[in-house]
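Hello,

Our lab assistant flagged a job as stuck in the queue for most of the afternoon. It eventually completed. Since we weren't sure the result was trustworthy after the delay, we are filing this so someone can double-check. Below is the sequence as submitted and the structure that was eventually returned. Let us know if re-running is recommended.
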Amino acid sequence: MKELARRWPVGVALLRDMAQTADLSPTIVEALYSEALVLADEARAAFDFSGRLVPAGEDEDLARIALSCEALRTTTRMMHAIAWLLNQRAYFAGELSEFQLRRHGRLPQRQPDASPDQVALLGPELEALIERTRLFYARIERLDLAWRNHFAMHPAAIHRLRERLGVAVGHL
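-- returned structure --
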């Protein structure tokens, strides 16, 4: 845990907070918002076009297209996550009602991922950054879905099967 705390202090704080709550809290939203801003800034810096491409034996035009496509995908992904988090912050600050948040605060569906061949043209550093933004967006998607379901705990498959059997046997 100490190693995790050193490498990802926001993530460890989030884990501690999430272990104590079954709902989305301002603390979780603020930690995620800070993490999103850092990640978005890293993406902006990484996709800065000034002298970024050094293709190694690949067609330079294909590499530039891959860079443009991934820059757009990655920054859009992060802006959607940040917009969702800003809506959550507004809700917790009392600036949005729950109705407004549920109606207008939806996280857009995830965009299709790039082909592995296209991402491979960008190099390992950008590939790792793209993966980090994908994982971050997936976390936000899970929170959005859980929040929309009011963080309802759904019974395990065995419990659902028992309930169905109980109903079926009760009707005999």
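-- support follow-up --
The delay was a queue issue, not a problem with the job. The result is valid. Residues 60-92 form the longest helix (33 residues). The helical segments are 2-7, 9-19, 26-46, 60-92, 98-104, 116-120, 124-148, 157-170.
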